[in-house]
Every structure is written in structure tokens, then in C-alpha cells.
Amino acid sequence: MASETLREARKYEEMTQAQITREERPAFHLSPRVGWMNDPNGFSYYQGMYHMFYQYHPYSAYWGPMHWGHAVSRDLLHWEYLPAALAPDMPYDKDGCFSGSAVTLPDGSQMLLYTGVIHEPQPDGSFREIQTQCIAIGDGRDYEKLPGNPVLTEDSLPEGGSRYDFRDPKVWLAQDGCYYCVAGNCTAGKDGQILLYSSRDGLHWQYENTLVKNNGRFGRMWECPDFFELDGAWVLLTSPQDMLPRGFEYHNGNGTLCLIGSYDGEHHIFTEKTDQAIDYGIDFYAPQTVLAPDGRRIMIGWMQNWDTCNMRSQPKKWFGQMSLPRELSVRDGRLYQWPVRELELLRCNKVEYHGVKVTDGIVRLEGVSGRRVDLELEIGAAGHPDIYRKFAIRFAQDEEHHTAVSFRPHESILKIDRKFSGSRRAIIHQRRSLVSHDAGRLRLRVILDRFSVEIFVGDGEQVLTATVDTPQQAEGISFYADGDVVLDVVKYDIEA
Ligand code: FRU
């Protein structure tokens, strides 16, 4: 039986969702049914559908006591809302149902493993969050919290592990028939670490090992871990808070981190070999993956950044969106991402240009415009020894607005810049990334939805993601070169 708190949330979202029209939402990126959304949770394939739950505050477009919103999809691009799945309604989660994940149990039910939060009063009158891991079991629509909750508490922490930062369990069923989960935690000194737990039945859990320790390298607390095997390697994804920049790889604030290495599953030891950012744009955090029935490892992230999301230009009816679902692969110790192939089925109105010359100025191409667009670009240097100095594509453009992606081959720097997107806030509007290219030749795939851009570099060895809050009438696209560029453009509209 749903609690009063959950029934209220379900009633509220049902009554108010009609206030948001289709045109006010992204067309093929998931947005909250009403109110606020952050992290993807419980991304899973269950009873023939993809399920996506999300950190959810239905009652306002701001973060608040966390519920779990719920949506299902067959193609990862068209989502149907289901009633909210969890509400903060028990003594052990009364201040929030934080992030977590989902797995199917042997009896065919679906288990959600999430973080329960309660505020504990401190001697000085302030409050601190105590975080434990809890379970709810259901049928893909309604979930019952386990009477034995919480299932993982401070008693299950390794020595020195903080009970204030112990969250975001990601669960999976392993080939040895056991369930495992990784959770974010930090030491008393606020240094991130990822803990590994195991369970025979999914309900009773024990600590196995600390998979990775930050040792002061990448920010402080590590949130929202995921851990899986891919293309013969083992991949650990996490989102560190309080990062410091390192070259063009990591930037200040909330970031993303991918560690690739090997895993000794018998002794539960992960050996890291390489590290990289997951996304090089402005808005991407807390991604989670699912293993699709056809074997693809698909990742979706929260298309926002904590550091900028409370600084808004205008009030909104909803806030927060998910990134495109991305197929992952590992090649030569590097994570590659590519938009799910299902997106190709939504492409229409193909327009194609080959060998367009852009020389010291701007070029617009007939039929190349729009705000729901999939654009493939092959940027090349003209055949003489002087490589061009700069190439840029501008989009979401009218007289007042544009957002630009520019490339300077002499510095190998690709930059996203949304300072003319209409934002009236002093937040981050630019980010630069080092990319590899062949003497100025570079391939980009640029995907625009109403409120976002995602730029896939080359074969997907880098992605730059950003929200773009520009009025929808601004749908111009143009190309600029300083020097001589030869350009191939294939453009599709996306009809969702
Ligand atoms: C990450 C995060 C998680 C937490 C959730 C709370 O964005 O801070 O660590 O579970 O958001 O909404």
C-alpha cells in the first residue's frame, strides 16, 4: 500500500503535469514529469521495457525532499511517465530517498536499492545527514519498502568510513550468481572511496572490499559509482565533488571520472590503468549504465551541473533533463560514447553538402537549421600547407543569440561557448577540451534538442554536453572559418 506521502506526490504530479506542454519540454531527452529532476536512478531493463527512475522533487522546480520519479521506454528516446515510485515516508528515509539502482530478483520482482537519508541533530544545533542503504521491491510500478530496512548501515563501513557520506549504491547480478553493489563513501578526512558489497539473495549484504581510494587525486567525495566489464576491461565511473582542474582533462567543481583497469573478481581487487573525464562539456553528472538485452552497455547522465543549476535566468515549470542514452565501448584504454542507434530511426529530412568551402568568413547552407537536429560534420583543411586558424559552427542562432563550438587546430582545442545563449547569470559558459585531429581534419556529430547540445568528437572518444536555454525561434546554424576550410555536412531533423 502506498503511503500518504507517496499518494500525495502521485496525485500532485497527475494533476499538474498538463501545465507543461510538449513544446516546453525537450523532444527526445527525458525531463521530470513535474518539478525538479537530478540523477538517473534504477536505470534497468525489466519486463520488456527500459525503466528510468530519477531523483525527483515534484512540488517545485528546485531540489527538495527526494522522491523517485519513474518513466519507461522501449527505445530510450520516447518516455512514458509512471507514478512516482518512492517517497521519503519511513523513519529511515524521512529526509530523502537518494540515488540508487535496480535489479531483477529470482522471483521476477524488481528490487530498488537506494540511499535513505535522515537529518541527525548535532550538539551545536545544526543537522547532519545520516545515510544508509535501503530496499524496495515491486512489480515495475508499485514498490514496497523492506520491513528490515536499512540493509546497509554504518556497521557495514570499513574503518574510518564516514556515515555522513555513504550513498548511491549501484547493484548488479554477477556471473557467479551473487549480487554485488558499489557505493560512494569517504574517509573521515573527506577523501572519496568506492566500497564493494556482496549478497547471495539481494537482501542481506556484506562488505567485501574498498575497490578504489581517491588518495586526494580527483576532488573529494565520490558520488554515484558504476562498475562493469566492457570490451575485456573493467570500468569504474564516478562523479567527484570539489574537483580541481588538471590541464584540460578535469575542471573545477562537480566533475566526472572514468577509471579503466582490470578486476580480480575472486579477491575483489580493481587495478586502475587509465583515468579520464567522462564528459568534457559543462552539464553532465552522475551517469548510470544499463546492460541492454542485446549486450550494449548504455549510459545516461544528468544533463546539469550542481554548480550552476540554482542560478537561473528565468523561472521554470520544470528543471533538469537527462542526457542522450549513449552506447559505450572501450578501445585502447579509453572510453568511447556514441548516441544510441535508436536515434537514427528518428532522423528525417536529410540534407547533404560535400566540399563546401568556408574561407575567412561565414557560410549558411540552405536547409541547415533547426533546434532538433542531428548534424554530422567533417571539417578539413584545404589542400595547401597553411592549415586554417579557426573553424566554428554556431547554432541556436538569431540576431541576438548563438552558441558556438569552435576548433583551433594549431592548439588542438575544441571549445563550447554559450555566453550568447541568452543566459543572464555569471555562471560557466565555456569549456575547452584537447582533441586529436589529423592536420586540421576533424569529425563532429552535433545533436541539438530544444534545450541542449551534445557534441561527439571523432568516433566518440570525447563528448561535450551543455544545456542551452535560448528562445526556440533562434534556429539558425552557420559555419565560420579563419583561413580555408573544406566542409562536409549531413544534417537530419529529429522527429520524436
Ligand atoms: C548526486 C547526488 C547523490 C545523491 C543525490 C541527492 O548528484 O548528490 O550523491 O544521492 O544527488 O539528490
Key words describing this protein structure:
binds beta-D-fructofuranose, 496 residues, 1 helix, mainly beta
Structure, described:
By secondary structure, this protein is mainly beta. Helices cover 3% and strands 52% of the residues. The chain is built from one helix and 31 strands. Strands 22, 23, 24, 25, 26, 27, 28, 29, 30 and 31 form a ten-stranded antiparallel sheet that branches. It has a five-stranded mixed sheet with strand order 4-3-2-1-19. A four-stranded antiparallel sheet has the order 5-6-7-8, with no helix packed on it. A hairpin with a 4-residue loop joins strand 15 (257-264) and strand 16 (269-276). It is globular, with a radius of gyration of 23 Å.
Care to give the gist of this entry?
The protein is mostly beta strands. Helices cover 3% and strands 52% of the residues.
Structural class: mainly beta
Q: List the ligand species.
A: beta-D-fructofuranose
Computed CA radius of gyration, to the nearest angstrom: 23 Å
**Uncertain stretches of 5 or more adjacent residues:** none
Largest sheet: 10 strands, antiparallel
Distance between the termini: 36 Å
Strand content: over 45%
Whole-number average pLDDT?
A: 97
What overall form do the CA principal axes indicate?
A: globular
Helix content: under 10%
Number of strands: 31
Please report the number of helical segments.
1
